């Protein structure tokens, strides 16, 4: 298993962060990592997600939404090929703070191929940080 975890403080309400996070159609305007996301933020929905980690080619996968708790958490599970090969459970968790909120973005990777993708996962973690800053900017601007 490999875990990536990042967080950022945002001077905006959890509602503002949730709106930016779940307005998937606007991702190409501001999101430097998740270049395209199609689907609905509801439990059981199938998404189509195109990510492009820094310095890497874009990849598209079709995860299933596990949690869609407005203003609190969006979580999905994506798999490559079949379960147990390369699985990633990605989460955006919004925690209210006195100054607004803190966004936690994390992903747990499991599967046989995970050890072979260390450099790609390092680039992915850097891309999480870039996404966090872009989301902060977007939510605070509104």
Keywords:
single chain, 142 residues, Alpha-D-Glucose-1,6-Bisphosphate, Chain A, domain 4, 3-stranded antiparallel sheet, 3 helices, 8 strands, globular
Would you give an account of this structure?
The protein is α+β, with helices and mostly antiparallel strands. The chain has a single domain, classed as START domain (Alpha-D-Glucose-1,6-Bisphosphate, Chain A, domain 4, 2-Layer Sandwich). It has helices at residues 14-22, 27-30, 118-141; strands at 2-10, 34-38, 48-51, 59-61, 64-69, 73-80, 86-97, 100-110. The strands form 2 sheets. Strands 1-8-7-6-5 form a 5-stranded antiparallel sheet, with helices on one face. A 3-stranded antiparallel sheet has the order 2-3-4, with no helix packed on it. Strand 7 (86-97) and strand 8 (100-110) form a beta hairpin. Helix 1 packs across helix 3 (118-141). The radius of gyration is 14 Å and the shape is globular. The model has no long low-confidence stretch (mean pLDDT 96).
Number of helices, counting only DSSP H or I runs of 4 residues or more = 3
Major sheet characteristics: 5 strands, antiparallel
- Which strand order do you get reading across the main beta sheet? 1-8-7-6-5
Low-confidence stretches: none
- Domain module tally: 1
So what's the oligomer here? Answer: single chain
What's the count of strands?
Answer: 8
Shape: globular
CATH superfamily: START domain
Instruction: Return the CATH topology.
Output: Alpha-D-Glucose-1,6-Bisphosphate, Chain A, domain 4
Distance between the termini: 38 Å
Beta-strand proportion: 35-45%
Fraction of residues in helix: 25-40%
Radius of gyration: 14 Å
* CATH class type: Alpha Beta
* Helix-strand topology string: EHHEEEEEEEH
The average pLDDT value, as a whole number, equals 96
**Gross CATH architecture:** 2-Layer Sandwich
């Amino acid at each position: 298993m490999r875990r990536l975890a990042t967080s950022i403080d945002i001077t905006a309400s959890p509602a503002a962060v949730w709106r930016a996070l779940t307005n998937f159609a606007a991702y190409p305007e501001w999101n430097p990592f998740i270049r395209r996301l199609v689907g609905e933020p509801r439990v059981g929905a199938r998404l189509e997600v195109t990510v492009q980690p820094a310095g890497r080619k874009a990849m598209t996968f079709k995860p299933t939404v596990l949690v869609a708790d407005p203003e609190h958490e969006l979580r999905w599970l994506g798999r490559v090929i079949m379960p147990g090969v390369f699985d990633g459970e990605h989460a955006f968790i919004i925690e209210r703070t006195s100054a607004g909120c803190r966004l936690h973005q994390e992903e747990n990777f499991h599967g046989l191929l995970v050890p072979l993708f260390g450099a790609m996962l390092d680039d992915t973690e850097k891309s999480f940080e870039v996404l966090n800053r872009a989301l902060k900017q977007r939510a605070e601007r509104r």
